[in-house]
Automatic annotation (TrEMBL), chain A:
Transmembrane segments: none annotated. PANTHER family: MALTODEXTRIN IMPORT ATP-BINDING PROTEIN MSMX (PTHR43875), SN-GLYCEROL-3-PHOSPHATE IMPORT ATP-BINDING PROTEIN UGPC (PTHR43875:SF12). The keyword Transport applies. One of its GO terms (molecular function) is ATP binding. This is Sn-glycerol 3-phosphate transport system ATP-binding protein. Keywords: ATP-binding, Cell inner membrane, Cell membrane, Membrane, Nucleotide-binding, Sugar transport, Translocase, Transport. Gene3D superfamilies: 2.40.50.100, Nucleic acid-binding proteins, P-loop containing nucleotide triphosphate hydrolases. Residues 4-235 form the ABC transporter domain. InterPro entries: AAA+_ATPase (IPR003593), ABC_transporter-like_ATP-bd (IPR003439), ABC_transporter-like_CS (IPR017871), ABC_transpr_MalK-like (IPR015855), ABC_transpr_MalK/UgpC-like (IPR047641), Mo/tungstate-bd_C_term_dom (IPR008995), NA-bd_OB-fold (IPR012340), P-loop_NTPase (IPR027417). Belongs to the ABC transporter superfamily. It comes from the Bacteria. Pfam families: ABC_tran (PF00005), TOBE_2 (PF08402). The keyword Transport applies.
Automatic annotation (TrEMBL), chain B:
The complex is composed of two ATP-binding proteins (UgpC), two transmembrane proteins (UgpA and UgpE) and a solute-binding protein (UgpB). It comes from Pseudochelatococcus lubricantis. It is a multi-pass membrane protein. It is found in: Cell inner membrane; Cell membrane. The keyword Transmembrane applies. Keywords: Cell inner membrane, Cell membrane, Membrane, Transmembrane, Transmembrane helix, Transport. CDD domains: TM_PBP2 (cd06261). This is sn-glycerol-3-phosphate transport system permease protein UgpA. The chain crosses the membrane at residues 20-39, 84-106, 118-138, 165-189, 210-229, 275-296.
Length: 359, 302
């Protein structure tokens, strides 16, 4: 269990491309931090810099208060789980688990005890004497985690550990990782593409974009109060509806005074757009629209509504199966309290003023 | 759609009804194999049971006498010993150096391609030329190596010193084979996922430990394949190097089996004995090939 402090870290690959652009992040001891962001934004690079597999161009990384910039991966006391698991194919599962301990000169009895415990926790005892190729994907994944936990490191680094598993197993392992991390209390930095993993696992969620942090905070904070257009669109599936104010005005709609000056884009979550006026209390924007298509996703339905003058359709999340007909006219109600206003130039949030709302 | 009559077959296969065409197409290859391989091999087997009179006019059938004589002949037993030493030395030297070079090149990111190209060049040199090249380098009167060695107090003369002759031969033969081994080792190294090495680094293994516990075991299919190839090479493909440098001497110190077959048969005109020797060589090749095929069949060992 250790803190990880990342200060003004930069990474430039040979060829001059700056991949991480002066990034600051502090991770508390025992915290589970999830890094999300679009492909190529530098998540893996950052994780590999913490692990010591990639050199640090500028800045400082400290693990447990100790600056590790010039330490070898082995000396940083971290363990990593790779996306392809990177199990040693010529060693048995037991061999894989023991390897790191043997290299550190751990006494035999201690090695056996730790391997036994890890195997028990991860339920891989029956496979200890098999080779990795004789295991299923899910079992390999467990072995990869086992290899990380036997070492009892200061921190775990997981790079998309579940992305090679099917949806059901992924859900199961997600819960297990959370439980394991709570039990062990080890700091964990977790990279993922999966929204659900990000929302459910994280103590602290970090959204990265283009080598920098867009926003960090608790998952609900990021979901409920995105500070930038990027985060608003990135978090949630489907992401927030982002409506261009200029297009709206051109189509003849008038915006209430509550929308602050300088707002270029208004955002609203699909679940905050309503078809029935009765379900909205307080002031709302009403937009005439036409429902174009409906997707039933089981517990809920997603409706795509075209609003005159807007280039993108507005997505609504409706609980349960939707009974209406596609291709019908309907009014969309956008409650003002649920509106997020962004400046088009800076991409940042423009705060709604409370008095304006009341007026 | 083409109906092949075997519904479960995945690959599309065209069937030609002509029964003669396949044989006609194969004929040239079969002819070459028969004329240049099977027929001479059969001749060798037949000759190995015969003894010719001194004038080469008549021959008598002597059963296995040529073979029994061979193994009673100290010169032949010596040649077996020399061949074994030579094959082991060449295989070991060429594979070790090739692996060292491959590991070094594999660590490079940018100049790897350049080094690979340069290192492959010796393979293109004909064995005779390689032999002559090293013969010049080691030449006791004009060569540069004996000159340098003299500063270390070594009086190099492979014409009279059997060990010197053997060393020169091993160097020349290994040098040529390093390129070939190198290519295979580089390919083998590049097929090892980087993440495995990284995982081992995180697991606390230093560079040497990583090499011996991860890289070397994972290279074992390549290493085994090369082992067979190199023994084969050292035993059979080095004739012209011997011919161009030592001619089997001094005093039989470099008289490896392939060279002895030639020396006894062509120079010594002892056809019966020479034939028996080539039959033995043939059996060694067959054995080596057999081992190799058996291994290739179940090659994924880990
Ligand atoms: N060795 C390298 N040399 C040069 N550029 C690299 C190297 N490794 C990664 N990059 C670049 O750095 C950027 C970030 O890569 P990184 O692997 O960190 O992305 P990521 O966020 O993990 O993406 P993904 O979600 O697809 O895994 C990419 O644009 C990539 O092309
Ligand atoms: Mg990545």
């Amino acid at each position: 269990m250790a803190t990880i402090a990342i200060e003004n870290v930069r990474k430039t690959y040979p060829g001059g491309i700056e991949v991480i652009k002066g990034l600051d992040l502090s991770i508390a001891a025992g915290e589970l931090v999830v890094l999300v962001g679009p492909s190529g934004c530098g998540k893996s690079t950052l994780l590999r810099m913490i692990a010591g597999l990639e050199s640090i161009t500028a800045g400082e990384i400290a693990i447990g208060g100790r600056v590790v910039n010039n330490l070898e991966p082995a000396e940083r006391d971290i363990a990593m789980v790779f996306q392809n698991y990177a199990l040693y194919p010529h060693m048995s599962v037991r061999g894989n688990l023991e390897y790191g301990l043997k290299n550190r000169g751990t006494p035999r009895a201690e090695i056996d005890a730790r391997v036994k415990e890890a195997a028990r926790i991860l339920e891989i005892e029956p496979f200890l004497d098999r080779k990795p190729r004789q295991l299923s994907g899910g079992q390999r994944q467990r072995v990869a985690m086992g290899r990380a936990i036997v070492r009892k490191p200061q921190a775990f680094l997981f790079d998309e550990p579940l992305s090679n598993l099917d949806a059901k197993l992924r859900g199961h392992m997600r819960v297990e990782i959370r439980r394991l991390q709570r039990t062990l209390g080890t700091t964990l930095v977790y990279v993922t593409h999966d929204q659900l993993e990000a929302m459910t696992l994280a103590d602290k969620l970090v959204v990265m974009n283009g080598g920098a942090i867009e926003q960090q905070g608790s998952p609900l904070e990021l979901y409920g109060d995105p500070q930038t257009l990027f985060v608003a669109g990135f978090m949630g599936s489907p992401g927030m509806n982002l409506i261009d104010v200029a297009q709206l005005r051109a189509a003849g709609a008038t915006l209430p005074d509550a929308v602050p000056a300088g707002t270029g884009v208004i955002g609203i979550r699909p679940e905050d757009v309503f078809l029935e006026a009765g379900r909205v209390d307080g002031p709302a924007i009403t937009l005439p629209a036409r429902i174009e298509a409906v997707e039933m996703v089981g517990a809920e339905s997603l409706a795509y509504a075209a609003v005159g003058g807007l280039s993108q359709s507005v997505v609504l999340r409706i609980p349960g199966a939707w009974t209406g007909h596609a291709d019908t006219a309907a009014d969309l109600h956008l409650p003002l309290t649920r509106l997020h206003c962004f400046s088009k130039e800076t991409g940042r949030k423009v705060p709604l003023s409370a008095p304006a709302l009341a007026a | 759609m083409l109906q092949t009559g075997r519904p479960r077959m995945q690959t599309k296969r065209t069937i030609f009804p002509n029964k003669v065409l396949p044989y006609a197409l194969l004929a040239p290859q079969i002819a070459i194999t028969v004329v240049f391989f099977l027929w001479p091999a059969g001749q060798a087997v037949v000759s190995s049971f015969l003894r010719e009179d001194p004038f080469g006019l008549a021959s008598t059938f002597v059963w296995f006498e040529n073979y029994t004589r061979l193994f009673e002949d100290p010169a032949y037993v010596d040649s077996l010993r020399v061949t074994a030493a030579f094959a082991i030395a060449v295989t070991f030297c060429s594979m070790t150096f090739a692996l060292l070079l491959a590991v070094a090149v594999n660590r490079l990111i940018r100049l790897g391609g350049v080094y690979t190209t340069l290192l492959v060049w010796p393979y293109a040199v004909a064995p005779v030329v390689a032999g002559v090249l090293w013969w010049f380098l080691f030449n006791p009167t004009i060569g540069i190596l004996p000159y340098l060695l003299s500063f270390m107090g070594v009086h190099w003369n492979h014409r009279i010193n059997g060990n010197h002759a053997m060393i020169m031969l091993v160097v020349a033969a290994s040098w040529k084979q390093i390129s070939y081994n190198f290519l295979f080792f580089v390919a083998g190294l590049q097929s090892i996922p980087r993440s495995l090495i990284e995982a081992a680094a995180i697991d606390g293994a230093g560079p040497m430990k990583r090499f011996w516990t991860i890289i070397f075991p994972l290279l074992s299919p390549t290493t085994f394949f090369l082992l067979i190839i190199n023994v084969n090479y050292a035993m059979f493909d080095t004739f012209s190097i011997v011919d161009a440098t030592t001619g089997g001497g001094p005093a039989g110190a470099t008289n490896i089996l392939v060279f002895k077959v030639f020396a006894d048969g062509i120079l010594g005109l002892n056809i019966g004995s020479s034939a028996a020797q080539s039959v033995i060589l043939m059996m060694i090749v067959i054995a080596l090939t057999f081992v190799q095929f058996r291994y290739v069949e179940r090659r994924v060992q880990y």
